Amino acid sequence: MLRDFSTGVGLLGQGFGLVFRSPKLLLIGAIPAVVTTALLIGGVIGLAVWIDDIAAWVTPFADDWNEGLRAATRFAAGFSIIGAFVAIGLLLFTAITLIIGGPFYEHIAETVEDTHLGGVPEAEQVTWVRSAAVGVRDAVLLVGIAILCAIPLFAAGFIPVVGQTVVPVVAVCVNATLLGIELTAIPFTRRGLKLGVRRRVLRKRRAVTLGFAVPTYLLCLVPLAALVVLPAAMAGGTVLAHRLLHDQIR
């Protein structure tokens, strides 16, 4: 498991190497991320400004509790709300960026596969309209899964100690997995493979997928880092998908 996880981390590192050796790919991948980065940061700032009121609104049962317990409960609620917002926001960020920048990321995936991985003879030509339609459909499903996962994790966030230690780790793993599914979309779509196939292939090598997706997810939490991380993750995700589909990871 540790070896597979480190393999996944190495694939992300390979993605960084690919885009840094070709600044054009880095620039192409950063362009669509600019607008969505501004939207995500604006949303986080707005939520942070109003988080006390929101936390009080979702915990009316704590109004009559003593001050210390009430403050601790509402801190846990606020922590969980921000965590859920960031998790869902990152998925939306990636989905919206991929939809807006479909041709850009298609170019990155094609360049990586055709130049560095031997090409895809059976590749389908994916138009921007089809890419956007697939992206919207997949985004709706994956964000729905993220919301369903966020509900029990939000509730578990109220458990003392566990809610502030174990729950965030589980949340990162869940949301990183969903992010990894999004970042490998284009290589699968080029082969005419649907979301269900993508999920099954990635699930078979879960540790490799997490090794790639967890550091990607954590790096995307750094403000503005996604402008560089996303093009690299797209290149690394292409390598990951290609090797899994061709059974080249041992």
TrEMBL record:
<feature type="transmembrane region" description="Helical">
    <location>
        <begin position="165"/>
        <end position="186"/>
    </location>
</feature>
<keyword id="KW-1133">Transmembrane helix</keyword>
<keyword id="KW-0997">Cell inner membrane</keyword>
<feature type="transmembrane region" description="Helical">
    <location>
        <begin position="139"/>
        <end position="159"/>
    </location>
</feature>
<keyword id="KW-1003">Cell membrane</keyword>
<dbReference type="InterPro" id="IPR059112">
    <property type="entry name" value="CysZ/EI24"/>
</dbReference>
<keyword id="KW-0813">Transport</keyword>
<feature type="transmembrane region" description="Helical">
    <location>
        <begin position="25"/>
        <end position="51"/>
    </location>
</feature>
<dbReference type="InterPro" id="IPR050480">
    <property type="entry name" value="CysZ-like"/>
</dbReference>
<dbReference type="Pfam" id="PF07264">
    <property type="entry name" value="EI24"/>
</dbReference>
<keyword id="KW-0472">Membrane</keyword>
<feature type="transmembrane region" description="Helical">
    <location>
        <begin position="71"/>
        <end position="100"/>
    </location>
</feature>
<keyword id="KW-0028">Amino-acid biosynthesis</keyword>
<feature type="transmembrane region" description="Helical">
    <location>
        <begin position="207"/>
        <end position="230"/>
    </location>
</feature>
<protein>
    <submittedName>
        <fullName>EI24 domain-containing protein</fullName>
    </submittedName>
</protein>
<keyword id="KW-0764">Sulfate transport</keyword>
<keyword id="KW-0812">Transmembrane</keyword>
